[in-house]
């Protein structure tokens, strides 16, 4: 009798502890009438602006401090480790600050992956991407406005294929790097995991920031690390050199492919959405 009650209580607890959220509507015109959408779009714009401003200035500062013509050495400045920390730390801060308003995407690849996973609607995804790209342009422009001479001299933090690497290697680095990031986003924000491990606090911005940090450590020598089309686009628009634009397609195609692969892997392999759909079809039949 006691065992039956215990099982029943556990069943009730599990049912209350987790409920599968419904997929976001593909197209919801009513969403355009809600202030919450525009507030979220503004949050994405400002977050991406701050992200580019801080990270671009970090890159320029490092390049300036290590400039041998000015007496610098490779040991001066924050180093590659410091640049990676700047990117990962800013993502942690900004995701933590904006997650409750917009979800804290700050990256068109993340938005695209979450759209494929039916976490956001098409309208929201498109508006987010526009806001992210506009914020990135403004952030890079602000960095140039404050340090124009250094900005032009030290590359403006723009992404391109580094010497010694070909475009195929660079594309692969962007695909895998973005896969790591978007896979981490899905895992860290999975409501089923949060419910199952409710006794263990899950601070989603922390693993997301660490994912950005680790990917930068691996791919800064290859591409300067994009994994964020808005980040690459904003810097390219303001710096505006032929070499940057020649390689720019890599920083859109790579993240989009990586994000799509991560969304498929999480939703259809780890979460077995395909098996659930098949089971539902069989039971209905």
What is the makeup of the main sheet? none
Number of strands: 0
* Whole-angstrom Rg: 21 Å
Give the number of helices.
13
Q: Could you say which overall geometry the principal axes of the C-alpha atoms support? A: globular
Question: What is the chain-wise order of helices and strands?
Answer: HHHHHHHHHHHHH
Structural class: mainly alpha
Mean of residue pLDDT?
86
- How far the N terminus sits from the C terminus, by CA atoms, comes to 38 Å
Structure characterization notes:
Helix content is 72%, strand content 0%. The model is unreliable at 5-16 (pLDDT under 50). It is mostly helical. The chain has helices spanning 2-17, 35-65, 79-98, 108-116, 122-146, 148-153, 167-188, 191-196, 205-223, 229-239, 242-247, 250-270, 273-284. The longest helix is centred in the N-terminal third of the chain and has 31 residues, at 35-65. It starts with a helix and ends with a helix. It is globular.
């Amino acid at each position: 009798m006691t065992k039956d009650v215990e099982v029943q209580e556990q069943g009730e607890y599990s049912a209350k502890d987790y409920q599968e959220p419904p997929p976001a509507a593909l197209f919801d015109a009513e969403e355009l009438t809600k202030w919450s959408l525009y507030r979220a779009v503004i949050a994405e714009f400002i977050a991406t602006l701050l992200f580019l401003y801080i990270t671009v200035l970090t890159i320029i500062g490092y390049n300036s401090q290590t400039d041998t013509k000015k007496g610098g050495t490779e040991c001066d400045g924050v180093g590659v480790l410091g640049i990676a920390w700047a990117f990962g730390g800013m993502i942690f801060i900004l995701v933590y600050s904006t997650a409750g308003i917009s979800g804290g995407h700050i990256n068109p690849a993340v938005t695209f992956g979450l759209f494929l996973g039916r976490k956001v609607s098409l309208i929201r995804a498109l508006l987010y991407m526009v806001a992210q790209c506009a914020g990135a342009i403004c952030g890079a422009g602000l960095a140039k406005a404050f340090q124009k001479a250094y900005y032009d001299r030290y590359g403006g933090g723009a992404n391109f294929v580094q010497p010694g690497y070909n475009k195929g290697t660079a594309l692969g680095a962007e695909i895998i790097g973005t896969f790591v990031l978007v896979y981490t986003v899905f895992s860290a924000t999975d409501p089923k995991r949060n419910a199952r491990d409710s006794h263990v606090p899950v601070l989603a911005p922390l693993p997301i920031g660490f994912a950005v940090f680790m990917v930068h450590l691996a791919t800064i020598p290859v591409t300067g690390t994009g994994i964020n089309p808005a980040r690459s686009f904003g810097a390219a628009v303001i710096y505006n050199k032929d070499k940057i634009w020649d390689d720019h397609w890599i920083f859109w195609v790579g993240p989009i492919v990586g994000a799509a692969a991560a969304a498929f892997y999480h939703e259809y392999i780890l979460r077995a959405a395909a098996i659930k759909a098949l089971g539902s079809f069989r039971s209905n039949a």
